[in-house]
Amino acid sequence: MRPLSHFALKDRANIRGLFFDIDDTLTTDGKLTADAYAAMWRAKAAGLMQIAITGRPAGWCDHIARMWPGDAVVGENGALYFRYDTAVKKLERCYVTDAAMRRTNRTRLDVIATQILREVPGSAMATDQAYREADIAIDYCEDVTRLPVKSVL
C-alpha cells in the first residue's frame, strides 16, 4: 500500500472518487478522528466522490449518509446502500432484495443465529444487531471476551 503522494501527478488528476472501509481503515482504534473527518471534508471540497463500505448495520448507515460528507454508504456487507439527497433533504435507501425477501431471510437468519449462539459458547449477538435489516452479526471479540480462533472457525 502506498500513499497517493507516490503516484504521479498526472495519475492523481484522474481520480474521481474514493471507496473506503470504515473500521480501522478510516477510523483509528474504533474512533473517527478529527483528522480523518477533516480529510473527508477536504476530499468533498476537491470534488471527489466518496463511498464508505462497511459491514456495520443500516442504523449506522442512516447516520453516516445523513451526517458525513460522503456521497453514499454501502452497509451490512453489501446488502444495502444509503445516500442522502441534499437537494430534496431525503435519505434514499436501496436494498439488494425487496422487503418480502428481507422478512423471509430474517426468519432464516434468526434460526442460524440461535444455532451459532448455542454451538459457540461465549459468543453473543452483536450489540448493534437491533439496527440491522438484512444480516446478523455475532460478537466473538468486541463486547464479549475474545474467543480463541479455533472456537469461531
Could you walk me through the main structural features you see in this protein, from its secondary elements to its overall organization?
There is one protein chain. The chain has 153 residues and is α/β, with parallel strands linked by helices. It contains five helices and seven strands, in the order H-E-H-E-H-E-E-E-H-E-E-H. The strands form two sheets. Strands 1-2-3-4-5 form a five-stranded mixed sheet, covered by helices on one side. The longest helix is centred in the C-terminal third of the chain and has 21 residues, at 99-119. The chain starts with 8 loop residues before the first helix and ends with a helix.
Q: Count of helices?
A: 5
Report, as a whole number of angstroms, the end-to-end distance. Answer: 28 Å
* Main sheet: strand order: 1-2-3-4-5
Order of helices and strands: HEHEHEEEHEEH
Layout: helices, strands, pairs:
Layout: H1 9-12, E1 17-21, H2 34-45, E2 49-53, H3 58-67, E3 72-75, E4 80-85, E5 90-95, H4 99-119, E6 124-125, E7 138-139, H5 149-152
Parallel strand pairs: 1-2, 2-3
Antiparallel strand pairs: 3-4, 4-5, 6-7
Gist of the model:
The protein is of the alpha/beta class. It contains 5 helices and 7 strands, in the order αβαβαβββαββα.
Characteristics:
five-stranded mixed sheet, 33% helix, single chain, two-stranded antiparallel sheet, 153 residues, alpha/beta, 7 strands, 20% strand
